[in-house]
């Protein structure tokens, strides 16, 4: 196709009659290509955003071409690029017909309308589309109708939960009640349940659902090596059993494997339709890749830039190195000062932020990570170093994506993951043409088949999933496996499901270790608040089967000490400052303390609860309930933890908390603090709260 031969940089450098002549040739070639090319061919589609970018660069010289570009946008189905004030009447009418005033004037493109037609006809849909497709807008479009009263939305990360919560709050607060936290209970009112799989799987107030939405559905495939896959499948199984309709969304999937006798019917829409163009800069031949990366990071023409790094430790190390070499912003000193005061003078984050570098990965505290993304999208933090956590959903306004590493942790990523990372470049309405810098070989392109466990043959179902299946849905083989683990562990119902989340064979080994410990002493039999030796013994039991490093500690004694210190700390701020003062390790590993705090939310409570179940099989005197009810919120009031997940750091909210507060009363107090310029909050903190609330 002639369009493929266009040198867009050369075209943009032209002016006058040369520019007009060559632009017309592009329009002509694209119009001819439409007749002989697939309607979702990326090579054809990218002409429209590139021309939009060209029009923005030469607004006066190419003014007369705007109607022609709108006509091309109409022909390709990129109706969101039709400029109604310049388009001819037919093109403008099409754009107006697919514009949703109730969603802030969003204009849909052809493939979005195709997906909506399927869903509004009441059919189940699995959608595979590129990152820039605008998949989340489809959820909003469905919610804006009057067809759905109770909706469950399953999202992979809490950061993404908060992003959806904010958007739903702004658009649907008068139409739906939003339920995101375990403390929030639904009523008969129209309700949106927002949650990760770990949260939704145990909710008892779901009722009958009209729609279940699963984002990043490829994580249902156990071959994607996601340790949360079993829980996700179990949660989705539970939701689909009570839901009239489902909608799964994900990027770049080619096929879905389904067992012949699967109970779940759906339509699969696979499209390559993208709303932005991407320009790839091949830097594989560069001899000193790290020096070149640092040089490109320092160029403001590349900002805002995401830098993909394989692991948190490497991202931290690069942030330290960059902050020692250059400054890329003067707008983040207030944030840096806040970080020093609230997480520690010695923590590398404050220095990195001071010089304009953000860091985003699974260890960073959520409210701080959300602030990083917010400042990045505002242009105040022009460079964000990230791992796969940011790639998995949080929307950013990145112009450039620099793919520096070729692995995620130690495993080489495949073409699917590469495509998802690449898809973060460009943003409709902000950066029509994104840029990707590739420093290593691009993985071989292969078709990706997704095989969700809940769609699989019974013979392929893992034991950890089987314990979540209702008895009428279990085959004889599955029922035999279920009864084996039920009898071997001596657990029923939710207790057995808890064991499955850790691993059934791991749970058996933990049970055996508990029995041996009880034969030697009664140190595992405690109530209320445990002493340090009692905490240590529990840690010894479950860490005999799991890596202690996964809980953010180097050994079990340190893990027990961290738990004990956190419980006894006056507040989270003082705990973090003491840890900062006593830290003697490598700077890039200092955020292990944040990894420990993440473990307190889920991994540690699970393991302590499982140990308690086995101890109580021998002694009913054991009662860990007070401890278990507190560790998940870092031994602070639950509402402070919930607000932290909504972007308000505990270090701020704790200063305003009064015993007996509900989230509403505390929010109101924070609102008043925002309005008081002479109060306890700094101007930076007031602005942080203003945007978070």
Automatic annotation (TrEMBL):
SUPFAM superfamilies: P-loop containing nucleoside triphosphate hydrolases (SSF52540). Gene3D superfamilies: P-loop containing nucleotide triphosphate hydrolases (3.40.50.300). The keyword DNA damage does not apply. One of its GO terms (molecular function) is helicase activity. PROSITE patterns: HELICASE_ATP_BIND_1, HELICASE_CTER. Keywords: ATP-binding, Helicase, Hydrolase, Nucleotide-binding. Residues 289-473 form the Helicase C-terminal domain. InterPro entries: DEAD/DEAH_box_helicase_dom (IPR011545), Hel308_SKI2-like (IPR050474), Helicase_ATP-bd (IPR014001), Helicase_C-like (IPR001650), P-loop_NTPase (IPR027417). Pfam families: DEAD, Helicase_C. Residues 116-254 form the Helicase ATP-binding domain. This is DEAD/DEAH box helicase. It comes from Paracoccus caeni. The lineage of its organism: Bacteria, Pseudomonadati, Pseudomonadota, Alphaproteobacteria, Rhodobacterales.
